[in-house]
Specification:
Strand content: 15-25%
Distance between the termini: 90 Å
């Protein structure tokens, strides 16, 4: 570069920096400006020898990210400084995280450290979906350090997407796919709607450029006609609004290219057939105390002139979204028979819609700001409370909870609770409190008893019935849809499994003693290997539920003597693979030994595909071939995308299961002499002693005799046999048989 070029570039850098200070949404004090200036100088020094792919000086990137953080998201000086420094530690040899801490203090260092960790995750080789999802989870875990880490990362991603033209096409597709998969949903959840929309449009631009450009050109062509229509619509209601002395603006907002494309695909229509390609926004000036009243007054004026669609009214003023979004949305039949979405917002609501939580805080007192930030972070962190879930499932569940529409249900005392659409009565229980969820016995919706799987609707009043003896069972995972409820249920089931394991260990000790074998670390290891299990807890649990019975243990004892002879002959020493602390420290794992297909989880004949060699425990799907029946592929198989894109109708859901965890419903017939307390004795044996769930029971008495039927859920025949034996021992019972 010539001296003149360097001079021009330096002037452009200075101009960009001054612009950053000008556009800050928050009021910057002198101390704030000093902090930002210092961060700018360190960033300038740290990136002095670096250039972007486009050839421009690298410093323009952190300045642009800081500008998004300051102007679009509206964060404070600490965040602006952190944004300027976000790549310094990773890209410069002159600064490490300790230098940042000494220069800027603990908070900035913590944010920069979090951003450095996230950045190092994405520097790995091209990721498959599973690894990408796992990295996303790790990224979200930085919320435990500081939520601003994620917000600055979203700003960083937005600027990268805005400046991707100079990248290789394959890199563009990879980054754009990741943006649509991860960053756009995250921006949506945080309430950064403008950024979410831009990320989605840019994602479409690079993943499907032809589709993007086609819709973009058609939108441009129809802009003049659209502006004319908005003016025509506005003129109809302006007189009425002016008569009521409203201070307002009416704006037309085109729908995003991404959302138009989504509607075209979902509804199977062309661009011209998408009827609501734009929305009209009425933004009015109001005091806080009068906001709601004026919103409904404007609603009344609009619907005086245009017929509303009653099914398309959305009142997010009375019940704001969990992101803080407030507005009144109505769809009316406008001029020329066109449906038009009208959004009614106060100036305050509009700022919150555009800036998210930063604007929300602007309207709060200092103490309230902290409370709101805390509750928001807590809500966001709820999605992270499930470390056991498979990473891809985690991301899908996270996205499901982000994008799903909200419903609003009431407690018996009238408190309003917001849940994702599709949430069940059981989800509601866990939403109130974990302990309420854990003790749930039943639920009433609008005073009627409903199953725990009952899907709630907006306006439902839900009463949760609890019991000290109630506890989660495996079926609850079929009833719960929210990430929070499912995480808590899985945790409880693991604890239950551990408790059965402790009981099973004692049973095993007694049974082995009868076979003249001592239960010690060596025996445990041999049993784990013999039954092809993974941990000692798997072993003890199976003994506890009767899946490993006396006959199987006798077989082990017989094979053990042969194994010992072989052991001494070959003088092999083996290092134990099970820790001494067999219950407390054992990781709970599953011994996947069976594959099931479809919603009904049927067992069908299949072959494992050679292209990806799936093994038990892998995330898999079935593919119906023409001549070889069902072939099973891993989700990250090189052929998976092609099969799923081109032959979706031949894809069958599949998953590995631990067959010992399956439950079976069976009916028991019972008869004998009627006496007081007999039913109580029967239910005690079934529920308290056997870890068996009853589904139904019915009894009849006649002349001092009784007969009855009991439906129970058991894990295996061994457990059923044991149950029948114990029932026969109850005083008064004559016959017990399986129907």
């Amino acid at each position: 570069m010539t001296e003149e070029d360097i001079e021009k570039e330096n002037a452009a850098i200075t101009k960009a920096y001054k612009e950053l200070l000008k556009v800050s949404y928050t009021t910057l004090t002198n101390e704030d400006k000093k902090l930002i200036r210092k961060a700018f100088e360190v960033a300038l020094d740290g990136h002095k020898d670096q250039r972007r792919k486009s050839g421009e000086a690298y410093i323009f990137h952190p300045i642009a990210v800081a500008k998004i953080v300051a102007q679009e998201i509206g964060l404070d000086a600490t965040s602006i400084a952190s944004a300027l420094l976000h790549d310094v530690v990773e890209d410069s040899d002159d600064y490490d995280i300790n230098d940042i801490q000494q220069l800027f203090g603990e908070t900035v260092a913590r944010i920069v450290d979090g951003l450095t960790k996230i950045s190092s995750l994405s520097k790995e080789q091209d990721m498959d979906v599973s690894l990408q999802a796992e990295n996303f989870r790790k990224m979200l875990l930085t919320l435990n350090d500081d939520v601003r880490v994620i917000i600055i990362k979203i700003a960083d991603r937005l600027h990268n997407m805005q400046t991707m033209d100079s990248m290789r096409p394959d890199k563009q597709v990879k980054i754009a796919s990741e943006t649509l998969y991860i960053y756009a949903p995250l921006a949506h959840r945080i309430g950064l709607y403008n950024i979410k929309t831009e990320l989605e449009d840019l994602g479409l631009k690079y993943t499907q450029p032809e589709v993007y450009n086609d819709i973009l050109n058609k939108t441009k062509e129809s802009k003049e006609e659209q502006d004319k229509y908005i003016e025509e619509f506005s003129n109809v209601i302006k007189n009425s609004l002016d008569k009521e002395a409203f201070v307002y603006t009416i704006k037309g907002r085109p729908k995003s290219i991404y959302s138009i494309r989504k509607k075209m695909v979902r509804q199977g229509v062309t661009f011209d057939e998408v009827y609501d390609k734009f929305a009209i926004r009425i933004i009015y000036k109001s005091k806080d105390s009068n906001e709601k009243f004026l919103a409904w007054k404007i609603y009344s004026i609009v619907t005086d002139h245009f017929r509303p669609n009653p099914t398309r009214l959305r009142d997010w003023i009375s019940s704001p979204k969990s992101t803080g979004y407030e507005a009144l949305h109505i769809t009316v039949m406008g001029p020329k028979g066109k449906w038009v979405e009208v959004q009614i917002r106060s100036e305050r609501m509009n700022e919150i819609a555009e800036k998210g939580y930063a604007a929300h805080y602007k309207y709060k007192e200092q103490g309230e700001k902290e409370d709101n930030l805390e509750s928001w972070i807590n809500r966001l962190q709820e999605a992270l409370e499930n470390p056991s879930m498979n990473a891809v499932d985690f991301v899908e569940q996270f996205k499901l909870n982000l994008y799903s529409q909200e419903i609003f249900a009431f407690t018996p005392k009238g408190e309003l609770k917001s849940l994702p659409k599709g949430a069940t009565a059981l989800d509601f229980a866990f939403h109130i409190h974990t302990e309420v969820g854990m003790r749930t016995r039943g639920a009433k919706v609008n005073s009627k008893l409903v199953p725990l799987s009952h899907q709630l609707k907006s306006g439902d009043q839900v009463e949760i019935i609890t019991s000290e003896t109630a506890k989660p069972n495996a079926n609850w995972l079929n009833y719960a849809t929210t990430a929070r409820a499912r995480a808590k249920i899985k945790s409880a089931l693991r604890e239950h499994r551990k408790a059965i394991g402790i009981e099973g260990k004692e049973i095993l000790r007694r049974k082995l003693k009868q076979l003249k074998i001592t239960l010690n670390e060596s025996t445990t290891n041999n049993l784990v290997r013999h039954y092809n299990l993974k941990t000692s807890l798997d072993l003890f649990y199976r003994v506890g539920i009767g899946s490993i019975d006396n006959t199987m243990l006798k077989d082990f004892a017989a094979s053990r003597s042969n194994a010992l002879v072989s052991f001494f002959k070959n003088k092999i020493t083996r290092k134990p693979n099970v820790s001494k602390e067999d219950i407390d420290k054992d990781e709970i794992t599953s011994n996947y030994d069976s594959l099931v297909f479809g919603k009904e989880e049927e067992k069908l004949d299949f072959k494992l595909s050679a292209c990806c060699n799936p093994i038990p425990g892998d995330n898999v799907f079935g593919f119906l071939t023409v001549s070889e029946g069902i072939k099973v592929h891993k989700y990250n198989c090189p052929n998976a995308l092609s099969l799923q894109s081109n032959y979706a109708y031949r894809i069958i859901a599949a998953k590995w299961i631990d067959s010992t965890q399956q439950e079976y419903t069976t009916e028991i017939k019972i008869s004998g002499i009627d006496q007081i307390g007999l039913v109580n004795d029967i239910t005690k044996v079934i529920s308290n002693n056997m870890h068996v769930n009853m589904k139904s029971l019915s009894f009849e008495t006649d002349d001092g005799m009784f007969s009855g039927k009991i439906k129970v859920i058991v894990k295996n025949k061994g457990l059923l046999k044991k149950l029948l034996t114990r029932l026969k021992k109850i005083n008064g019972i004559d016959k017990v048989s399986r129907v």
